[in-house]
Amino acid sequence: MPGNHETLVREKHAKKCALWAPWLHPIAQYPRLSCLRAANIMLIGVNTARPSLPFHATGAIGRAQLDQLAACLRDARSKGLCRVVLLHHPPARNLVVWRKRLEDLQALEEVLRREGAELVLHGHSHRATTTHIAGTDIPVISSSSASHAPGHDESAAGWNHIGIEQVPTGWKITVQRRFLTPTETMCASTPQHYTLSRPMPLPNA
């Protein structure tokens, strides 16, 4: 998904979208989102890239995209899909400084509280953190940058291995962080487990 590094200055929107086209997956129903379905999982990409003032790296979603996100989340749940939302800027408070924030965070929180999701993944903070969408049980997960130096803390170079399993009451999500130690060996953290009670919809519901 595009982030602040992809929109440092204002450019013609159509031209920029054409450059990203091979890696984005817009569909006719939700042209502002990037949607990719894999088996019973729907990946929903949200673009937070916006030009910002010098020494700032803020992002925003915008009302039109938020409306499409709400509709997409409802539709995906009606089909019994696990909904994974991806965006660059953190959808939670206190993970980045004010000048790097998501400007319409509150509006996104309202959509996710109302429509639900099973998992939210983000970047931008360059740190491996776990939290939740405010007022919900929706996990919010990030990873450190793969180009960081080895180390012990949450900023060491790494990535997340994520497993999603459908269970009778909803979804079981397992997140295990893989990171480089000072000896430059790959280490795995203790897996984190999230069980979300999301009853599957009845046929033709």
Overview in brief:
The protein is an alpha/beta fold and 205 residues long. It is 17% helix and 28% strand. It contains three helices and ten strands; from the N terminus they run H-E-E-H-E-H-E-E-E-E-E-E-E.
SSE topology:
Blueprint: H1 13-20, E1 34-38, E2 41-45, H2 63-78, E3 82-87, H3 105-115, E4 119-122, E5 130-132, E6 139-142, E7 158-167, E8 170-180, E9 186-188, E10 192-197
Parallel strand pairs: 2-3, 3-4, 4-6
Antiparallel strand pairs: 1-2, 5-6, 7-8, 8-9, 8-10
Helix pairs in contact: 2-3
Tell me what the structure shows.
- By secondary structure, this protein is α/β, with parallel strands linked by helices.
- Helix content is 17%, strand content 28%.
- The protein has helices at 13-20, 63-78, 105-115, and strands at residues 34-38, 41-45, 82-87, 119-122, 130-132, 139-142, 158-167, 170-180, 186-188, 192-197.
- The strands form two sheets. The chain has a six-stranded mixed beta sheet, with helices on one face.
- Strand 3, helix 3 (105-115) and strand 4 form a beta-alpha-beta unit.
- Helix 2 (63-78) packs parallel to helix 3 (105-115).
- The longest helix is centred in the middle third of the chain and has 16 residues, at 63-78.
- It is globular and about 50 Å long.
Overall, the morphology is globular
Helical residue percent band? 10-25%
Radius of gyration: 17 Å
Roughly what fraction of the amino acids lie in strands?
A: 25-35%
| Structural class computed from helices and strand pairing | alpha/beta
Biggest β-sheet strands, sense, barrel = 6 strands, mixed
| Discrete helix count | 3
* Residue runs with pLDDT of under 50 for 5 or more positions: none
Order of strands across the biggest sheet? 1-2-3-4-6-5
Distance between the termini: 32 Å
